[in-house]
Amino acid sequence: MKTPLVILAAVGVLLALFYALAPAPDPDAVTARTDLPWQVEVLPDGTSRVLDLHLGVSTLNDALVKFGPYESMAVFESESGERSLEAYFGAVDFGPLRAKIITALDMPEDELGALVGRAVERKGSPTGDWKFMLGMPDQLAVRDRRLQSVTYIPTYRGLEADFFRERFGEPAAWKALGEHAVQWFYPERGLYMVLDNRGQEALEFVVPRLMTVPEDVTWAEKR
Asked: Rounded CA gap, 186 and 178, in Å?
């Protein structure tokens, strides 16, 4: 009966020696993350870097390198008639975090209209919005278009407001969106944030110098 105990003791000694004699990890070999959503770098020209992408400069091709293949691409048309070209990447891992990513591409209205005319499928939604799915030739043709915005939607629901407040600070302004959601505004970072206690939170990053804030918001302090 003593033999198993002797073996266990020997294994324990060997493990202790291994950890004691193993070289310390090289700090230079450990790369710090730069793609977490609260790591927003605002540049002197009023653009920003977030999620390792330079908004207003990086293209859909750059997003493909960062996030991998997108799942779908479509022109979205709101009930009011506003259009945007978006690529949906599905769930993307950022270290221990996972989020759904949507990129909107910079494209003039006349070109958006042309894409709608060539769409291979049209899908409706209960909100009155339309989604016009693009064929592969058009998908390939727009990969050099610049990123107008990136939306980050955490897959983990129910994050507390304090989670975001600790990482982004107090919002400059806010606006209630019904009974269960509120929108926070960070103009200096180019960030719109929606917190919903019944659904998913969403963070939309835009070029800071181009960010607009609605008139009917409550400012944290008089400007």
From this structure: 20
Enter the tokens of residue 206. 């835009």
pLDDT in tens, 41-91: 999 999 999 999 999 999 999 999 999 999 999 999 998 899 999 999 999
For residue 40 the two structure tokens come to 């927003």
Residue 179 Cα to chain centre, angstroms: 25
Cα 40 → chain centroid:
11
CA dihedral 121→122→125→128, nearest 10 degrees, is 170
d(CA 155, CA 92): 9
> The sheet that has 83-94: what strands, in order across it?
121-124, 130-133, 72-77, 83-94, 97-105, 147-154, 202-206, 191-196, 181-186, 173-177, 218-219
Neighbours of 176 (CB within 10 A): 12
